[in-house]
């Protein structure tokens, strides 16, 4: 009889047939033997069955099929059937390093104060090539106020959490069409102090590709305000203290997304909003200056802009360890 899984790896899929085989392969290749991999097909129409078929003989793999209900509903379906002590999330276009599950289990087994852990990640392009960009925060522990100001996890695929916390926090909110991961992380972070930990290793590959939800700025802004309003109702004093910095950081992040998407007008507007909302917060962090420099480059001729971005990238790399190296 196979041992009971220590970790359940949940892979939600919707029209990601070009990538899901890589995600499943990386999950099944984990050095931690006691795992289960739960793939949830959320009504795909792009050849999902053919992509998954080679893995169906592996007894650690389970496939759940449902009508299209959205990302949160797909994750919730996988989590509802999970039996592992821990749940790891892996989006169908991302990848895990072979020792990711093991490293998280070792950390969280050894520190019962940790309810949610996340790792560093590489950013890869649509073809799976390393872009040279990283997300590698240097602090080891985070509290609710940190999470209000910024989603420090970087991406959902970096995250592992205790399955037991869901009995208190509930699942992903299916009414949210963006920021649904941050909404759950905030509920987990509110359980006790500094229970969000970073596992300081590059254990996740996060794929940056066109058409991702992070490109819909209007949707992200609406969802962010819903999440912040909910947190304000739960922790009014804390949100009052950090709301300015939180809104500034959110605007800065949307400026970064708009800049990467080539929308100079939106990037400029969002960056100006960030500085207006909390100039001290922007001035006091490296990412405030580097994102500002990137957005300012849109006013320059292309040759000058390219040179400035190269200098900014070198600055970010040289300062790695003092601030987030990611977006």
Compute the CA-based radius of gyration. Answer: 20 Å
Number of DSSP helices? 13
CATH fold annotation of the largest domain: Spore Coat Polysaccharide Biosynthesis Protein SpsA, Chain A
Strand percentage lies at 15-25%
What is the SS-derived class?
Answer: alpha/beta
Instruction: Please bin the fraction of helical residues.
Output: 40-55%
**How many beta-strand elements?**
10
Provide the residue-averaged pLDDT: 90
Tell the overall outline. globular
Runs in which pLDDT lies below 50 for 5 or more consecutive residues are: 320-327
Name the CATH homologous superfamily of the largest domain.
Spore Coat Polysaccharide Biosynthesis Protein SpsA, Chain A
CATH architecture tag of the largest domain = Alpha-Beta Complex
Series of secondary-structure elements, N-terminal to C-terminal:
EHEHEHEEHEEEHEHHEHHHHHH
The main β sheet shows up as: 10 strands, mixed
Number of domains: 2
The CATH class of the largest domain is Alpha Beta
N- to C-terminal distance: 45 Å
Write a structural description:
The protein is built from 13 helices and 10 strands. With 327 residues, it is an alpha/beta fold. It folds into 2 domains: 7-213, Alpha-Beta Complex (Spore Coat Polysaccharide Biosynthesis Protein SpsA, Chain A), CATH 3.90.550.10; 235-318. Strands 1, 2, 3, 4, 5, 6, 7, 8, 9 and 10 form a 10-stranded mixed beta sheet that branches. Helix 9 (236-260) runs parallel beside helix 12 and helix 12 packs antiparallel against helix 13. The model is unreliable at 320-327 (pLDDT under 50).
